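User: I'm putting together a teaching handout on how sequence relates to shape, and I'd like one worked example. Could you take Riboflavin biosynthesis protein from Winogradskyella jejuensis, show the sequence you're using, and then write out its predicted structure as tokens right after it?

Assistant: Happy to. First the sequence, then the structure tokens directly below it.
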Amino acid sequence: MSLNTGRFTKILTIGTFDGVHIGHQAILKKVKNLGKKKNLIPSVLTFFPHPRMVLKQNEDIKLLNTISERKFLLEKFGVKLICVKTFTKEFADLSARDYVKNILVEELNTKQIVIGYDHHFGKNRSANINDLIKFSEEFDFEIEEISAEDIEQVTVSSTKIRNALNDGDVSLANTYLGYNYFLTGKVVSGHSIGRTIDFPTANIYIEEDYKLIPKDGVYVVKSFVNSKEVYGMMNIGSNPTIKNKPRSIEVHFFDFEDNLYGKEVVIEMLHRLRDEHKFKTVDALKTQLKKDKKASLTYLKTNR
């Protein structure tokens, strides 16, 4: 969304909001409630690419959400106006005063900012909450500071969630997120090997290479296809039993036969069943897949 949104008077919070986890949601709830009380538009200023992608290009940084997913989640949790600022080295070099004056005040017409006590901003992140309070007096906006106590009540970080997903612990990640971790991708053609063993799969291609894909293995998943809730099991890995190939994401939906080629799907990850293994024969793999399906249905019976 363009930053040219000055005609709206906003209550704003600022951050990368990767994951939009329960800690973020607590902040968004405060923004929403204060906005309703003061007749201000609940808004978020967020950044893309992630600052670390620009400032630490030697790191292989994976994010919990694509920018489209982040926007979807922010809207889901009550944000009415999402302002995405393209993060560049030039932007990072803005002085704290220029950032506040040019962007927060003149471009965004901010009336109130809800921000954590430990917020830093401006070139080299040299300015802090005390500086922002001084700027608020100069430029006539209010500050709602989120205290250390409030933040510690939801001691969740995007890093903790990334670590959980890299370990395959989607249950822990989902607890931190407050929703099921999900992948958004397009169904593309595969080798159709799954059909030959009675387990046809939808091959999911995710365009955004910065999206974090959890640890290889087999997972219980759900999706909405043509407005219908469907469940299945998903394999992340290289399919070593049949043919070692580049890492892929394949979903076998239960009791579902529609043609999904070319469609975008959202896959919610519910539970991890096991690691990916190389079996001695295709028949051994098929036997295991039957066990996986049974285990998936047992899980769903008690966890829907």
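A couple of points you could highlight for students: The domain at 160-303 is CATH 2.40.30.30 (Elongation Factor Tu (Ef-tu); domain 3). The chain has two domains: 10-154, 160-303.
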